[in-house]
Design a protein that fits this description.
Structural class: mainly alpha
Shape: elongated
Number of helices: 5
Strand content: under 5%
Largest sheet: none
Distance between the termini: 50 Å
Number of domains: 1
Order of helices and strands: HHHHH
């Protein structure tokens, strides 16, 4: 039971953290909401949004690039061989669908960096 709760918790946490990226392009990302005690209505300091977004962009870029590079080398991130029945190793349509579904992950980090930079520029000019 504890393992399932842990997995659900990690899933919810990752979705919430990923959703914060929307605040970099939405107007609600520039002011704290009314329900935040002590900060309601105040402007969000630009570094408080840009620094975590830039760090996240760097981590995501390195992580997914490493995953794909090792995948092409036929090993996991730990250096263990990838099983032959893994979809990317199977060949044919399974491999094509695997890469079609997972290639957008390579864009996640660079696109987050672009959005963080745009947020920084937009907030700097005000």
């Amino acid at each position: 039971m504890g393992e399932r709760a842990y997995i659900v918790f990690l899933s919810i946490l990752s979705e919430l953290v990923a959703f914060t990226a929307v605040g970099l392009v939405a107007t609600w990302g520039e002011r704290f909401p009314r329900w935040v005690p002590g900060l309601r209505g105040r402007r969000v300091p630009a570094p408080a949004a840009v620094i975590p977004a830039a760090l996240g962009a760097g981590i995501l870029t390195v992580l997914w690039t490493a995953c794909f590079v090792t995948q092409f080398a036929g090993v996991t991130l730990r250096g263990e061989p990838i099983p032959a029945n893994f979809p990317a190793q199977a060949g044919g349509w399974e491999t094509a669908i695997f890469y079609l579904c997972y290639l957008p992950l390579l864009l996640w980090g660079p696109l987050l960096a672009a959005v963080a930079y745009a947020y920084h520029r937009r907030r700097r000019n005000r």
